[in-house]
């Protein structure tokens, strides 16, 4: 019989979670889950694992619709039969916005709306609460505008910039090295440079352009992705700093002006 800690690990992996996100969903601390799946290190180098109580197992069963017999090794079906189907990525956005002429508008998702968007991206009433506008040259497809949050893409985008994404109809169409807004069940809204490994491993690799070491590359399973938007345009409040050659030209120009003034005074 497979140990209960192994079964819980399998459930965590099945839903593409980590111990922290799994613990949050069932209302316990990540330390509690760590003690069950990893155990506490003992002086002799072994690990002592905590056995989960009835209440914790009940929370897991209810939250994830787990077949109780799976937990105790009496069934190979992890999910209750009526919950076995996993929703796959949709080829079109669940909700779009249109103007009075029937043309699609671009829905704007500001930073303050990010948390609500993860639950409301498929809710017509919620999408209608977000600002929307029309841009005539962005008409070949469905577009959405997201406000950039944080510094993970610094060098390319900055906090507060706006990126315009075109809806990706098939995740297999994601191109290596290009930038996408990815909406996922566990990470919410992220802006990343993507490496597509769906065909080989059913995963996307998410990379940051900021190389200061605080933004590690990581992967997500394709089943986690609920929307993907290919960034085709952006608007920034950041004005580029003058490059060094312009600084030198400015210095030279200043010296010439001052020299001319000096010559006029001497004459």
TrEMBL record:
SUPFAM superfamilies: LexA/Signal peptidase. It comes from Aquimarina amphilecti. Keywords: DNA-binding, Transcription, Transcription regulation. The keyword Transcription applies. This is Peptidase S24-like. Residues 140-224 form the Peptidase S24/S26A/S26B/S26C domain. CDD domains: S24_LexA-like. One of its GO terms (molecular function) is DNA binding.
């Amino acid at each position: 019989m497979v140990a209960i800690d192994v079964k819980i690990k399998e459930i965590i992996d099945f839903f593409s979670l980590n111990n922290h996100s799994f613990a949050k969903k069932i209302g316990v601390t990540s330390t509690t889950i760590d003690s069950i799946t990893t155990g506490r290190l003992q002086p002799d180098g072994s690990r002592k694992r905590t056995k989960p109580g009835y209440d914790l197992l009940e929370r897991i069963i209810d939250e994830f619709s787990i077949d109780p017999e799976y937990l105790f090794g009496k069934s190979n079906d992890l999910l209750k039969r009526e919950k076995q189907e996993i929703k796959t990525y949709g080829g079109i956005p669940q909700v779009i916005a249109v103007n009075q002429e029937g043309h699609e508008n671009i829905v704007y998702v500001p930073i303050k709306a990010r948390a609500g968007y993860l639950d409301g991206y498929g809710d017509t009433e919620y999408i209608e609460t977000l600002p929307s506008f029309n841009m005539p040259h962005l008409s070949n497809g469905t577009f959405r505008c997201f406000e950039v949050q944080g510094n993970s893409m610094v060098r390319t985008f900055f906090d507060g910039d706006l990126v315009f994404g075109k809806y990706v109809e098939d995740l297999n169409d994601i191109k290596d090295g290009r930038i996408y807004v990815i909406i996922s069940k566990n990470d919410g809204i992220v802006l990343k440079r993507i490496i597509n490994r769906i065909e080989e491993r059913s995963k996307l690799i998410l990379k940051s352009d900021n190389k200061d070491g605080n933004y590690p590359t990581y992967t997500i399973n394709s089943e986690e992705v609920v929307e993907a938007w290919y960034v085709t345009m952006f608007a920034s409040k950041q004005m580029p700093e003058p490059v060094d050659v312009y600084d030198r030209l400015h210095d030279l120009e200043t010296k010439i002006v001052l020299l001319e003034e000096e010559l006029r005074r001497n004459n």
